[in-house]
Amino acid sequence: MRVLGIETSCDETGVAVYDGSAGLRAHAVHSQVDLHATYGGVVPELASRDHVRRVLPLVEQVLADSGLTADALDGVAYTRGPGLVGALLVGAAVGRSLAWARQLPAIGVHHMEAHLLAPLLEDDPPAFPFVALLVSGGHTMLVQVAGVGRYRLLGESLDDAAGEAFDKTAKLLGLPYPGGPQLEQLARGGEPDRYRFPRPMTDRPGLDFSFSGLKTFTRNLVMASGDDPQARADIARGFQDAVADTLAIKCRRALRQSGTGRLVVAGGVSANQTLRARFDAMAAAEGATVHYPRLALCTDNGAMIAYTGYLRLAGGDRGTNGFNVTARWPLEALVEPGAG
């Protein structure tokens, strides 16, 4: 089965073809970073318009790169949600139109389920069951994963997502958009122990997160530090270490409570090398393994949508004829393929 995947949930246009026999045949992503940099964040209307411009040329490119024509496809997957509604509608319109024209099944994919399953595309994928940390600009959650569509939410952020906290903290430090990678780079020159940030909610039981307080802590330090560039680097280092420690502590608790020895870390923030080093050290100490998507598949991409669509179509899902997208869609509302 060959599935075309289309991702347009926010500010990346991603297209890919996944083949059940040959694996990932081709994928391409167009990033809108330069488009939104002037505004310091994603402008929904501009994002939607750029998806309109980019998606069909990317479909043509990916089909050519895969050595296939549209007639060779067996299904189409697109991101149904969560995300920006206008952006989602672009991918849904193109995906469903392509499927309708060729009488193919079209399936709307949950964006976070796709992130969660992306590490299964790697050469040494984790076996079920495992614990997944989904950490991105819009979400931070711990999930017990028994199989495709078999998810139990263990904990989530009560305020800002970790990626959102990175971006907002970077803005406080005067760094350009997108802030997360810029903050990681600045933190490399920082002293690790000059500023001791709190590790929110690690002194109480449970697996929920809170990152808004770290922003307030950062704001106070920035105001007190003046224009000292070394202080800025030290603040970035302290903030990043605090987030890394907090996430690792919660993941360790989740592994112990679940009794599984496998951790998946996915989403855009999983590309951060400091966080990866902290997770690797924690997992080694626990006798567990940790799995990540390749760096190219950490941020939003069509490959994870095509793969998730393949798993669901191959498992018996057939999608619907309805045309709908959703800005909010709880992950735990999903069911196993073929059961819906």
Description:
The protein is an alpha/beta fold and 340 residues long. The chain folds into two domains: 2-116 and 297-333, ATPase, nucleotide binding domain (Nucleotidyltransferase, domain 5); 128-292, ATPase, nucleotide binding domain (Nucleotidyltransferase, domain 5, 2-Layer Sandwich), CATH 3.30.420. The chain contains ten helices and ten strands. Strands 3-2-1-4-5 form a five-stranded mixed β-sheet, with helices on both faces. Strands 8-7-6-9-10 form a five-stranded mixed β-sheet, with helices on both faces. Helix 5 (162-172) packs across helix 6 (179-187) and helix 5 runs parallel beside helix 7. The longest helix has 30 residues, at 229-258. The radius of gyration is 20 Å and the shape is globular. Fe cation binds at residues 111, 115, 300. Its main location: cytoplasm.
